[in-house]
Amino acid sequence: MLQRSFRRMAWKSRLRPWQNLDWLLFALPVILTLLGGTAIRSAELYQGKTDWWQHWLIGGLGLVLATAIARCRYDGLIRWQWIVYAATNLSLIAVMVAGTAGLGAQRWINIGGFYVQPSEFAKIGIIITLAALLHRQTADTIPAIAKTMAVVAVPWVLVFLQPDLGTSLVFGAITLGMLYWANANPGWIILMLSPIVSMILFNLPLPFNLSLILWLAWVVAMGILGWLTIPLPLFGAFGGVVANLVSAGVGHLMWGLLKDYQKDRLILFLDPDKDPLGGGYHLIQSRIAIGAGQLWGRGLNQGTQTQLSFIPEQHTDFIFSAIGEELGFVGALIVLIAFWLLCLRLILIAQTAKDNFGSLLAVGVFSMIMFQVIINISMTIGLAPVTGIPLPWISYGRSALLTNFIAIGLVESVANHRRRRKY
Question: % helix / strand / coil in the chain, to the nearest 5?
Fold first, then answer.
């Protein structure tokens, strides 16, 4: 009897490092990775490529890394905050100096034949840096927000200069999500975003001067919001109005400097039929593929748009169109539910973390994944411009896949080291 109890105690001690893990949070990325490899194989079935098994191989490596990270204490990263930040910026500088160019951008470094994209790993660096920064000082004051934005500005500029618009947008989503979780006034976040909205509204090609009317209404609304939320009301109202007026003028100037094909890439999603054989081709073919799937899909390896390679880069940015065509509305809905459950688990872990640092790590990962999913799927169905943002765990991309698994490992570490409840 005594020997049996000792065995039971020994078995429990072995399981203790895994007692608080969120196993659903581990299972969902694995399922999505398997689905991604299957969709990639179907998209490249007649092209002689083997990206699908590389996707699974890198996914397996990422799962091992995530498991190892989950066992380590995440709070030790606070001491390494600025080292992580410096390494992030140095890697982005290294790309500009010795990087490999491709698809009109210089984003990769060749390390022993393995092309690494530092901007993907920089997302993790930004999350760790901001979590440590906001752990020490919450974002409930304007100086704290200004300090946070200054820290993010350096890697953001380095990524934007590659140029990598998609990743720079992800940086912005991560920052805003973590600021909100760190008690930033929602009105301040809207005011920070307002110049971008003002640029878009002022230059939006709408009939009957509708864009001008919407822009003026937006400027007035931002002035009122600045009056209500900034500690100095007059300064807030004046700043909100001036910032939007200036940004509209700057946006109009920048719009005039863009070439026609660059303008088309930004606005063609509103009317892709304007250039059906050029900039609108991707969007038109993607919508045809998803619509052709109907309810149950045409069957795996049976989609005509997918098998005949009508959609360029379908194994990366437009992988969701292959799923929509071959697995139909039901398959696409299952993917959406999987991402919804994953994001829900991330928020629950953020709410139950033992400290602000762990909570902010989980929210940073949540913001990163949620933004990428929304933009990628919106892009494939014609609700957003083509930005080159991959679909997490499903699109082919070795650096992106490893980054997502590392992010899950960090959140699992937060879950694993929560305070255990006693009854």
Answer: 75, 5, 25
CA 244 vs CA 77, 150, 202, 237: distances in Å: 39, 20, 10, 11
Let me know how long the chain is. 423
| Structure tokens given for 402 | 């490893």
Cβ neighbors of 409 (< 8 A, separation 6 or more) are 65, 66, 67, 68, 69, 70
- Residue-wise pLDDT for 212-235, tens only, equals 889 999 999 999 999 999 988 899
pTM of the predicted model as reported, rounded to 2 decimal places? 0.90
Give the helix ranges, DSSP H, for 230-355. Answer: 233-257, 260-267, 281-293, 304-307, 319-352
Q: In the numeric block, which tokens belong to residue 240? A: 């909100």
Give the pLDDT confidence of 144-157 residue by residue, as tens digits: 999 999 999 999 99
Half-sphere exposure of 139 (CA within 13 A, CB side): 27
Residues 6 or more apart whose Cβ sits within 8 Å of residue 304: 292, 298, 310, 325
CB atoms within 10 A of CB 117: 23
DSSP for 329-377, please give it. Answer: HHHHHHHHHHHHHHHHHHHHHHHH-SSHHHHHHHHHHHHHHHHHHHHHH
The partner residues of 108 in beta bridges, in order of sequence, read 100
Structure tokens at 143: 């100086």
Return the minimum-mean-pLDDT range out of 30-44, 62-76, 375-389: 375-389
What are the domain boundaries of the chain? 23-42+50-184+258-416, 185-257
pLDDT bucket at 15, cuts 50 / 70 / 90: very low
Check: CB of residue 380 under 8 Å from CB of residue 101: no
Phi, psi dihedrals of residue 280, rounded to the nearest 5°: -90, 0
Three-state secondary structure call for residue 108: strand
Q: How many CB atoms lie within 10 A of CB 146?
A: 11
Q: What distances in angstroms separate CA 230 from CA 58, 142, 178, 191, one per listed residue? A: 48, 9, 20, 10
Neighbours of 15 (CB within 10 A): 9
